[in-house]
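Could someone model iron/sulfur cluster with this protein?
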Amino acid sequence: MAGVTRTDRCPGVLRPHLALDGAVVRIRVPGGQTTSSALGRLSRIAQRFGSGDLQLTSRASLQLRGLPNPVPADFIAAVREAGFLPSESHERVRNIVASPLTGISGGIADVRPLVATLDSALCAQPSLAGLPGRFLFAVDDGRGDVSGAQFDLAYRSVDHDHGWVLLGNARLGKLVPAADAIPVLLDLAHQFRAASRESRDVWHVRDLAGWASSVPGARAVEVPAATADTPLGAIAGAASVHVPLALLTPAQAAAVETHAAGPVVITPSRGLVIPNAADHLPELVAAGLVDDPASPWSAISACVGAPHCAKSLISTRTYATALATAGSPLPRTHISGCERRCGAPSGDHRDLVAPRQVELPRLVGQVR
Ligand code: SF4
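Reply:
Sure, complex below.
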């Protein structure tokens, strides 16, 4: 087996991760683009087989936890029927983030069709099933949100017909016609895979020293980055809401399904953008979703922590809930049960790492 995949333990539907609360599966949702009915269906699958919540990740993917081990065949069939497993061979490499508001508000181009084409073209190339499960494509509509965060290969629109293909970061790339974006991205993915085959523990372009700068035509570029946080509230008729602690509960998923028929975008900042649902913000907020950027809930995040993760001695979510409900504004804060800092936001934030049991007032004191 090639070096890049030897220790690749990224979970998928067909390759669950085992935690203290049972099996965990990760479902890729390219560009975060789904629908309210698909989300509702997946929520019911989570309630039938697992903990009931849908966990949003920083790559706009979804995780289901608390599943039986081994994961039942009925569960996999249900996920497939709900449309979340279109490719068994490529399920763990469909890692594509995209500007969540593209085609809804702002941006230079609507990159939603590009995301769909990249996903299907990626899945059609057998050897790209061997990319690392952490390898990430980003498709940026020109506003600089997803190309301002970490990625491996990105396309960033410059105008409707052109864009930068970026290599490993936003400072090295080549200008290409939009029509060539997908073939160029896939060709580079093939080149990366070939160049990294014999290397151990190479997950990302940045792990392969000198590779990006050796790509023919690559040159230094200056593309300004923007915050990766999607604004909250009513935006061009859409409802943009934060999901507290990144856990979409059954009641919240039901509210989305009831009040918003049609597309839903999962955001890398653990929220949902729901086109044409701005009028239903009160009902979404009543279900526990957050539309107020000043809410402490939109500033606090936590890894899964105890009792679900063996590496944590603290219930990170209990601490996060205590902070969020204390009533005063918070700086952007992420609470982790160990130094791995799973799920930490990509932007500026304060890290609270508690590898040992720690009294809540002391931890809270580190924030205020
Ligand atoms: S940061 Fe550590 S304690 Fe938290 S989920 Fe990751 S491995 Fe577990």
